[in-house]
Structures are given as structure tokens and as C-alpha cells.
Amino acid sequence: MAKKKFVKESATIMTEMVLPNDTNTLNNLMGGRLMHWLDVVAAIAAQKHSNRIVVTASADSISFKQPISLGNVVTLHAKVTRAFNSSMEVFIEVTAEDIPASKKTITHRAFFTFVAVDQNGKPIEIPEAIPETEEEKELYDGALRRRQLRLVLAKRMKPEDAVELKSIFNMDITK
Ligand SMILES: CC(C)(COP(=O)(O)OP(=O)(O)OC[C@H]1O[C@@H](n2cnc3c(N)ncnc32)[C@H](O)[C@@H]1OP(=O)(O)O)[C@@H](O)C(=O)NCCC(=O)NCCS
């Protein structure tokens, strides 16, 4: 298996149209349906990077700032930002498009974490992810801090060990 892969090799695009069965009683996309699409597109990106079976380990907080209407075309762009040992962070950007009105809006940005596992569900090592563009490098740099934050919140890391996370606040977050 490759030891390193470029971030762009994991790039995945998914396009959906919001149909009546996807909506709430206000004719807007249900949050749960969007989360399902996020999970699927991110899992495909994680599989492309790792060439493994992957499981969702976490989804960072997702806020729903504006509704997506019935009939809109929703496009989800996903890519791995950084790989660690068995886990990888995936960034997803969502746009909603009203094609007849020629109106396109970025509605959501989200980070999911996937873990590559073997046939027994045991975490397994994955290739390093190499960023190339400025945006990929920025996402790569921030990934370590975001990983530390989610591991602290999941009680899988002691706050005092989250060195990079603490450095952005320039303060001791254990106090
Ligand atoms: C995710 C899972 C494989 C981790 O297994 P584990 O035995 O706890 O393994 P480890 O402690 O060795 O952790 C493995 C990796 O997962 C990461 N991880 C575990 N929990 C995490 C969380 N909540 N957020 C982010 N990363 C997490 C660890 O940081 C580690 O990453 P690394 O190998 O890159 O350093 C296991 O908890 C699992 O199978 N969960 C269920 C997954 C699932 O069913 N998802 C669908 C939900 S409906």
C-alpha cells in the first residue's frame, strides 16, 4: 500500500436534488437527510484515501444557518485534510443551487473523522495525506488542533496534552 497520497486523490463530489421525501413540513431539507449525505460523501473520500473499510468516529458540530429549499440542487465536495495513524479528518463543503434562479450559496462546512479498520473492525494504519494547494495546506495545519479538541471533548485526550490546541488560545485551557 502507498505510504503517502495527495489530498486531491480523495476528492469526492456528490450531487443530490432536494425532493419532497427529503423535506420537513416547511418544504426545506431535513437536517438528518443532509447529515446522511455528509456521512456518505465523507466516507467515500476516506475510502479513496485509505483503500480500506472506514467507520465514522465523529462528526464535528454542524449548525444549520439557512434552510435549503425543495427543488434545490445540493452539491457536497469532500476531501481528506490530514491522516494520522488509523484516523483521518474529512472536510466537506456544501452548496445549494437554485438553478432556475441562477443562485448558488455555500450553506455548510463540516469536518468528519473516519477510522480505517481491518476485516475485524480493528484500526489499521493509513497513508499520510500530502496537501498541495494553499487551501489544502491551511486545512492540513488546522487539522491537528481540531483533532486535539475533539479528542479532549471525547475524553480520549487529557487537556494538558493538547499542546497545539492550547497554543491558539495562548492560555492554559485546563484552568
Ligand atoms: C472508531 C473506532 C474504530 C475506534 O476504535 P478504538 O478501539 O477506540 O481505537 P483507538 O483508541 O486505537 O482509536 C483509533 C483511532 O480513532 C480515533 N478516534 C477514536 N474516537 C474518536 C473520536 N470520538 N473522534 C475522533 N477520533 C477518534 C483515535 O484518535 C485513533 O486515531 P489514530 O489511530 O489516528 O491515532 C471504534 O470506536 C468504533 O468502531 N466505533 C464505532 C464506529 C461506527 O460504528 N460508526 C458509525 C456510527 S453509527
What would a concise description of this structure say?
Residues 8-120 form the HotDog ACOT-type domain. With 175 residues, the protein is an alpha+beta fold.
Question: What does the model show?
Answer:
There is one protein chain. With 175 residues, the protein is α+β, with helices and mostly antiparallel strands. 27% of the residues lie in helices and 33% in strands. The chain is built from three helices and seven strands, in the order E-E-H-E-E-E-E-E-H-H. Strands 2-4-5-6-3 form a five-stranded antiparallel sheet. The chain has a two-stranded parallel sheet with strand order 1-7. Helix 2 packs across helix 3 (163-169). The protein is globular. The relative contact order is 0.18. Coenzyme A is lined by residues 55-58, 84-87, 113, 115, 117, 121, 123, 150-151, 154, 156.
